[in-house]
């Protein structure tokens, strides 16, 4: 990618200012001062602006621990969005799918549109695991109901994987991504979700990432995600 395009994607400054910034020698690529805005920057290069390391060019993959109260969107006029929690402000970064405003947990954020699309395609049946707490004790028959397809007005769910975690708590893995799916499934099983956290997505796990924190995925995690999404 050209250096001026990369700096522009990172929202460093306007296109014209970027040319000036580069010509003044304020940007280095792999340790060498860059003087030409049209310089070709290799994927994964170490690019610095006034000595500060910039996010790597090329595809990037992040995991965010979404707190409740943040909208899963790139921009919104009224409410704070998950993108406001990201240090990396490059254009093209977007969340993979959606979590409800009150849902917490694992949200992938990437500029790799091909992977995002494949992770969300229902035919790829990418697993998503949630920890849910409910308003009343979960009825014993919930285990059976949630492990089989549930028929809704607008769709029939694929069988989920249910695991009890307490009288009013359970883990549920689903293999599609319908609107309010987990809340609707628990409703079908006779209780309402009062707290929801996604703890795993396509083989990646939230682990002990702090609420509101972001980290880059490891190469191994990206490989697992691609495998899960059927990208080789
Ligand atoms: N299912 C839901 O009901 N809500 C979410 O945020 C995610 C899955």
Number of strands: 13
CATH topology of the largest domain: Alpha-Beta Plaits
What ligands are attached or bound here?
Answer: uracil
CATH class of the largest domain: Alpha Beta
Low-confidence spans: none
For the record, the count of structural domains works out to 3
Q: What is the CATH homologous superfamily assignment of the largest domain?
A: Pseudouridine synthase I, catalytic domain, N-terminal subdomain
Number of helices: 6
DSSP strand content: 25-35%
Structural class: alpha+beta
| SSE string, helices as H and strands as E | HHEEEEEEEHEHEEHEEEH
Shape verdict: elongated
Distance from N terminus to C terminus (CA atoms, Å) equals: 23 Å
* Average of pLDDT: 95
The helicity comes to 10-25%
User: Any idea what the CATH architecture of the largest domain is?
Assistant: 2-Layer Sandwich
Main beta-sheet annotation:
9 strands, mixed
Radius of gyration: 21 Å
Structure description:
The chain has 232 residues and is of the alpha+beta class. It has three domains: 51 residues, Structural Genomics Hypothetical 15.5 Kd Protein In mrcA-pckA Intergenic Region, Chain A (Roll); 86 residues, Alpha-Beta Plaits (2-Layer Sandwich), CATH 3.30.70.580; 75 residues, 2-Layer Sandwich (Alpha-Beta Plaits), CATH 3.30.70.1560. The protein contains six helices and 13 strands. Helix 1 crosses helix 2. The protein starts with a helix and ends with a helix. Bound molecules: uracil. Uracil (URA) binds next to helix 5.
């Amino acid at each position: 990618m050209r250096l001026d395009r990369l700096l522009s994607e990172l929202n460093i400054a306007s296109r014209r200012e970027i040319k000036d910034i580069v010509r003044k020698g304020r940007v280095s690529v792999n340790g060498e001062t860059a003087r030409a805005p049209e310089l070709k920057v290799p994927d994964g290069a170490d690019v610095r602006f006034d000595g500060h390391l910039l996010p790597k060019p090329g595809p990037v993959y992040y995991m965010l621990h979404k707190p409740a109260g943040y909208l899963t969107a790139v921009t919104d006029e009224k409410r704070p969005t998950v993108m406001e929690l990201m240090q990396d402000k490059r254009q093209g970064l977007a969340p993979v799918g959606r979590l409800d405003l009150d849902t917490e947990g694992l949200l992938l954020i990437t500029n790799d549109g091909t992977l995002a699309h494949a992770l969300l395609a229902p035919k790829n049946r990418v697993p998503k695991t949630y920890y849910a707490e409910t308003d009343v004790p979960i009825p014993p028959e919930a285990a059976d109901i949630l492990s089989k397809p549930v028929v809704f007005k607008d769709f029939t769910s694929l069988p989920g994987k249910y695991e009890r975690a307490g009288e009013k708590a359970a883990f549920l893995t689903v293999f599609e991504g319908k609107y309010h799916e987990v809340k609707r499934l628990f409703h079908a099983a006779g209780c309402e979700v009062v707290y929801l956290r996604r703890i795993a997505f396509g083989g990646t796990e939230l682990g002990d990432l702090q609420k509101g924190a972001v980290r880059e995925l490891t190469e191994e995690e990206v490989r697992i995600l691609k495998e899960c999404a059927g990208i080789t």
